[in-house]
Amino acid sequence: MMAAVPPPRQSGRDLRSPGNRGGLRRRRRSRWLRVPMAAARRSAESAREPSPGVKGGTRCLPGPCLAGGGGERFCASSPFRGGSGGGRTRVAGAEAAMERREQAVVPVEVLAAVTREQFLQDVYPRRMPVVLKGMELGTCITKWTVDYLSNAEGSKEVKIHVSAVPQMDFLSKNFVYRTLPFDVFVRRAAEFKHKEYFLSEDEKYYLRSVGADARKDIADIRKQFPNLAEDIQIPEYFEKEQFFSSVFRISSAGLQLWTHYDVMDNFLIQVTGKKRVVLYSPRDAPYLYLSGTKSEVLDVDNPDLEKYPLFVKAKRYQCFLEAGDVLFIPALWFHNVISEEFGVALNVFWKHLPAESYDKTDTYGNKDPTAASRAIQILDRALKTLEELPEEYRDFYARRMVLRIQEKAYRNDYG
Amino acid sequence: MMAAVPPPRQSGRDLRSPGNRGGLRRRRRSRWLRVPMAAARRSAESAREPSPGVKGGTRCLPGPCLAGGGGERFCASSPFRGGSGGGRTRVAGAEAAMERREQAVVPVEVLAAVTREQFLQDVYPRRMPVVLKGMELGTCITKWTVDYLSNAEGSKEVKIHVSAVPQMDFLSKNFVYRTLPFDVFVRRAAEFKHKEYFLSEDEKYYLRSVGADARKDIADIRKQFPNLAEDIQIPEYFEKEQFFSSVFRISSAGLQLWTHYDVMDNFLIQVTGKKRVVLYSPRDAPYLYLSGTKSEVLDVDNPDLEKYPLFVKAKRYQCFLEAGDVLFIPALWFHNVISEEFGVALNVFWKHLPAESYDKTDTYGNKDPTAASRAIQILDRALKTLEELPEEYRDFYARRMVLRIQEKAYRNDYG
User: Fold this and answer.
1) Minimal CB count within 10 Å: which of A12, B4, B223, B380?
2) Is this complex scored with an ipTM above 0.90?
3) How many CB pairs under 8 A join A and B?
4) Spans of biased composition, class Basic residues (chains A, B) (predicted)?
5) Which domains does chain A have, with CATH numbers?
């Protein structure tokens, strides 16, 4: 039986409804939670503590109201929480201005005990992220301590990201790539202060495993970490021939990965540690200031709204993963991941489209399907043709082209 | 000397500033006039009368505040003018809702005594519509009475539009094409009630002159109406080789022509009668619900906002033409024309782009430049390619294509 579960913070108890025998039971569509940007930010340290009421404003508990699945508790945030305190008149203009700084937070749906059949029939076709709890993942859940990991795979070399700041930026490349023996890397990633380091004593580490030859081979835990692979049972909620990669991800507490999308469906299996994942629908791409597959908006909690004014229009989905949770991330869904604790995850990617749709040279699962790349190349030829016209004409026909795309290729079942 | 002039309603007096000797003097950028949609509508009959204040609302004179060039007088419209009267609280939400039903009206700039040199140097490069007053147009201004027109060109056959309703709709084709002798047509167009008619006794008539073979030949008053052509002096504010067509336009009082754009620059020379012209910038194309070169929004004064919600975002430029006025309509500017009186106009089109940019088969001046047509054809191939992908991918990459067009081909000097 598969059932909706309460927020993960309380998931120690089995809260599955005994009356739910009719297959998939879902929460009613969660009420949106409007919270100011600043309130949506929680440091890794305070993530588990409910915050006290905000001084001078309406009392609000950002803890539970931001938790995945916690949509039924409502965070009544005052529009002036971020302001200078009480005594201000509620002027329409000011209210609207504050409104713009608030962002909807939608908890990602949380389901427990979902079978393969239920997933394929009821969950997968919806193309929405879902947290799956209570999955059978094997002995890794209890075994994968720092010592065990180090011993299991020893001193084989791994290429890692090292960052002096928690927030990694792929666009400005504020991190470096280094190579370390796996066991040394695991110990360093698990510690807060380092005696030996590359950049600074509190540098952060991040492993995203790759194939033997990163340019040609695809990451597969069974090949690169065969001993550890034996401990984990991957939920094969897809056909064997759809399998693309299994990527080992190990990161320091506090490390934040840039917002990006992948072109494959995937399960992010949180084996140990905790993560906060913020997601955005593919339809919100226009508000994410993309550069390739990545968003230029690095700090999703305190975005620079002067620079990225449309970012507030992106609907923020959010969940908190605990050890043993599996997050289904559909292809094209943007995600931003903070490791709230040192943690080990396995990220399993599989093909949703027919195999021939994908770029054969793609080892990371983030190259656009070939039809999409071709369409964009053809579009570039159209834009080249428009360049023959003066600016006012180019602008006008560009607008007409946009209208044509919206009319012909946009979904009309999106709200 | 060329000078800014006050609203055309007062233009009988010469108000040119004696102190303005330094070439082109322009009004300061007109303050926008926010008026509710309904207030923007004026029937041909009441066009010259200032309206009284609106009952139960703020006093407002839609007459002068809608007049071309009258931008300095401000119409303080109450947000509740269209509502149920006083006593309602000004709630932010309701205010915003009413706000959405209001539309900015920008008077088209009015200039007098503009020389060819001044036009080419100061006006033309701005690519904005302008009403030119006091142009030397020849004897047509006094000569072209109904009798004179009828006698001058006699009973040669002309193909005309006949409509039982004032508002012609090219998309639903709510009018018919008929053929009449020119002299009969002119008399019918000038009268309100007809003894002889095709559809109804108050049907409206409209002539848009065409070449000898409408499919191959281009309208030229010198060829189709050689006698009348002698009476009019066309302001040749362009090079001879740029000339494209001179289109005779004669219409019944009250007749309204659908909103559309042309791809050539043109002068609409109002020889006799009065017109109200509403214009929209090419950049507002996304709000006009286009079907080819025409807007689906037929009633610009009382648009169906359920069906066309974005229409309110289009900035409404407006002017009133009197006998002797010349309206410069830059290529791509949308225009909607109401004949407030029976009137005769000559519409002179010329090429702004190099001659080879235009479609060789275009006899009306409304086929898109070849580079634009090619770009749209290429875009259609890109969209065809996207069709290989499932809907969610197609939608996503369509959005990315839109972002790419906006980034690469939109002007960035538009506000």
Assistant:
1) A12
2) no
3) 177
4) 23-32
5) 105-357 (2.60.120.650), 374-409 (no CATH)
